[in-house]
Give the backbone structure.
Amino acid sequence: MTGPVFAPVRLPLAWRWLGSWVWRLEHAFERARAAASPHDSRRRIALVMIAFGLAFFVMGIGATHQALFSGNSAEFSGASASPYARAALTDRNGALLAVDLPHYQLYVDPREVWDVQGTQQALAAILPQAQAKRLNKALTGTKRAFVIGGLTPDQRTAIHDLGLPGLSFEDDERRVYPLGNTASHLIGFSDSAGSGLAGAEKALDADVRKAAVTGGSVPLSLDLRVQAALEDELRKAANQFTVRGAVGLITDVHTGEILALASYPDFDPNNAGAADPNALVNRVAQSVFEMGSTFKIFTVAQGLDSGTVRLNSTFDVSHPLTIGTQTIHDYDKGDTTLDLPHVLLHSSNIAAAKIALAMGADTVTGYYRNLGLFGSAPVELAESARPLLPQKWSQNVLASASFGNAIAVSPLAVAAGTAAVANGGTYVPLTIRKVEPGHEPKGRRVFSPQTSQTMLRLLRMNVLEGTGGKADAPGFSVGGKTGSNEKVVAGRIDRNKLVSSFAAVFPADGPPEAKRYFLLVLMDEPHATKETYGFATGGWTAAPAAGRIVSRVGPLLGLKRAPVAATDKATVEAALASGEDH
C-alpha cells in the first residue's frame, strides 16, 4: 500500500536562494569548529547578524509594497474609518460650525465589579446625566452591559483614573456644534447614524459625506460675525416686545448668498431631541405670513415697470375704495391726493389697490410668478415652504394682495423677490453655499435696470421721510418699507395680533450693480410698550431693530460709513423729480 503523494512545493526564487545560503552558512560553522579557528565565535555572530539583517530587509520591502499598492490603505485612513463620518461645516471665513469629535461609550461587566455601591457612587459623581436605573441594572446584572454614550475624552479619562474594575470603553464618534444655539436653524443637525436631519446638515448631506472621505470641509455662505450681530439685536427686540416668534435675515442681493439667518426662539443642536418643538421651527423658511405693506414694494415696482404708472401719477385717496363687499381704508387718513412717491411714504392701501387693478390679474400674477412668490423659495434648505395662494384672482383678491393680504409667503421668498427689485432687476435664487468671488449666479430678468434704480430712490426716500424713519442707520443709506398686518385666527381677523416687519436694502444709493444687501426683520405678535406709545406696528417694533443691525453689520460687510450729507433728502427728491428714471 502506497502512501499519499505530495507535489513538491515550489518556493519563490528569493526564498530558495536565502535557504541555500543559510544551509551553506551552517556548514561553514561546522568546518570552522573542526579547524578549531580562534575567531570562530566572532565570525558566527557577524554572519548571524548579516543573515537577520537581510531577512528583515526583505520583509520590509514586502510590507512596504503591500501598504502602497494593495489598495487597502484607504480603509485605515481616519476619513473613511467610519461609514457615519461627516466633514466639518464652516462659515465663509473658515470658522468652525460643526465637526465630528471622538466620544466614548461606557460598559460595565458586573462579574468583575467587587464593590457595586462604591462603583455606582463614583460614576454618579462624574456622570450625573447617567440614568441611575440603567447604571444599577448594569452593575447588578450577569453580563457586560451598556451604561451611557457620548462621553467626552475628559470624562473617559476621569472614569479611567478611578481604577475601578469591570469598566470598559468603546469608540462613539459624535457630531458636535461648538457654537451651541448660534445659527442653529441654518446649520441644522444630524442623527447618530450620520444622516443630516435639518438645515445645512440635511440640505448638503451628500457634499458633507463626500468631503469626509477626503478630509475636507464644506463652507457655507454664512458670515458668523454678521450672524452674531443679527441674533443679538433680534433677541433684544423679541424680548422687548414679548413676541410669539421673530425672524432675521440678511442676504447679498447679487449672489443670493444667505449671510445670516435667525429664527427666534432657537435651540441647541447638540441636544436637539430635548428642544421645544416650537423652537425647532425655522420661521425664516418654514413659516408663511401675510406680509402686509412690504408687498407694496412689489406693487409699485410692477406698476412702474409695466408702464401702468409713472412717478408723477396721482391717486385720489380721499374716500375708501369699495370693491364688491370689501371696503379698503388707509391707515393714514387726511390726505386727498398722493403722487407715486408718497404712495410708499404714506403706505396707502387705496392707491396700491388702484395700481394693481389698473395692471390687471394677468400682469400682476405674471410678475409674482417671476418673483418666485408662487412657489417655495429656491434654496437648498428642505424646510423652504410653499406659499398659501388664492384659488381665484378676483378683483377683491387682486386688490388685497397689492398691500400684502390674501397671499402668504415665507421670509425667504420675500428676500429673493425684493433682491430682484434692488439688484438691477434680476431674480437670483438664494443659496446657503459660499459663492466664490467673480462667480455670477444665473438669474432671470424681472424688472428693467431703470425700474430698479427708481425703486432704490423711493425706498431711501421712505426711510428719510416716511414710515421707515426709525430704521435709518446714519452713513449707510438704508432704504426700505414697513409692514403691519392683522393675523387671521380661526377664520377671523384678530386686530390684537400683528405680523410687524421691515424690509430693507442697504446701501440704497449708487448704481444697481453696486454692493448691496437685503435685511428683513419680522416680529410675530409683538406687544406694544410704553416707549412705543401703545403701537406694535412695523415702524415701531421691527424698523428700529433693523437700523441697529445695519449699523453693526455694515462695517463687517466692508461698507464704509459715508458722511451724512445735509442735502441727502433733497438729493433723492431732486433725482426723482428730474424724470430721469420714469
Summary: The longest helix spans residues 40-69. Residues 1-9, 70-81 have pLDDT under 50 and may be disordered. Residues 33 and 386 are 96 Å apart (CA to CA).
